[in-house]
Amino acid sequence: MDLGLENKHVFLTGASGGIGIETAKMFLQEGAKITLQYHSNPDALQPLLKEFPNRTYAVRADVRSEDAIINSITKSVEKLGPIHILVANHGIWITEETNIVDMDLKQWEETLRVDLTGVFLYCREVLRQAKKFSISDLSIVIIGSTAGIFGEAGHSDYASAKSALTYGFLRSLKNELPRVSKNGRVNIVAPGWVLTPMAEKALEDKTLFKRVLQTIPLKKVAKPADVASAILFLSSSKAAGHVSGEIFEVTGGMEGRLLYTDNEVG
Ligand SMILES: NC(=O)c1ccc[n+]([C@@H]2O[C@H](COP(=O)([O-])OP(=O)(O)OC[C@H]3O[C@@H](n4cnc5c(N)ncnc54)[C@H](OP(=O)(O)O)[C@@H]3O)[C@@H](O)[C@H]2O)c1
User: Fold this and answer.
1) Which residue has a Cα nearest atom 11 of ligand 1?
2) Is the pLDDT of residue 265 over 90?
């Protein structure tokens, strides 16, 4: 199916991460131009920059800085033209489990700053440029998580940020977007477990891995490409032009989590 993505300019945050790289590859295969935002790992982007020198632009931005976000959008537009698609994919998830009773304010604020405020700022800046350049079909895809739907014990900071994006933010933005961009849409892709650097360390724990599989009907975790193809579908005005405000789960059918190991239940 032709997704109509040729020559569209995609701004992808967290492009240097596991889901980011795979998503960038798929957009490039569809003929899109892409700005690849990274924070600390430019090396991950080198193969794509070499293979597609005319349709890629890499920009560093720490999403904890409002100025860095604004500058990255300005440079991206200068380099590849007005942005048609934003994929807000960056994120942090602290591997170590910390219950609320033990969580310090620093961790809480850091996670919300990156995972929630960073997405708000990127959406705001992309809306402003869509207004400036009269983009009529701005498409935004935000990467949420099942943690934002079910909660995640030991990771309340992350679950809260993702929940805020998935419910309050998504549903407000979908109603505001057409006032800025006539056919503008926003959707959430909510993965369960995905094999990327973010989750690999936790999944090395065989007990946890088994417990994870016990919650998934398909008995497997996702590959980054499973998530990337959902992102491409929703980003396409041709394929998903009447889809807005949806939460698209990529979970293998997971609908909740086991809370206790075999030994913890009498
Ligand atoms: N993996 C999973 O199991 C899973 C499950 C559900 C949802 N998700 C979500 O999927 C998205 C992508 O995750 P992933 O698995 O691909 O993770 P990943 O491989 O750890 O990649 C995370 C990305 O976020 C960027 N990033 C982190 N802190 C940043 C900051 N302060 N400023 C700017 N960028 C920053 C990283 O940039 P650098 O590497 O350049 O520093 C990297 O590109 C995230 O939103 C995550 O919450 C993942």
Assistant:
1) 89
2) no
Q: Is the pTM of this model over 0.90?
A: yes
Relative to the CA of 147, which ligand 1 atom is closest? 6
- Nearest Cα residue to 114 out of 2, 225, 22, 17: 17
Could you read off the pLDDT of 165-188 as tens digits, one per residue? 999 999 999 999 999 999 999 999
What CATH number is given to the structural domain containing 133? 3.40.50.720
158 in catalytic set: yes
1 is a domain residue? no
List pLDDT tens digits, range 101-115: 999 999 999 999 999
The whole-angstrom separation of Cα 63 and Cα 91 is 9
Does an H or E element contain 208, and which? helix 206-213
Instruction: Please give the C-alpha separations between residue 140 and each of 103, 109, 159, 215, in angstroms, as whole numbers.
Output: 32, 25, 21, 30
- Flag whether 235 is in a domain: yes
Domain that holds residue 95: 9-252
CB-based contact 126:73 (threshold 8 Å): yes
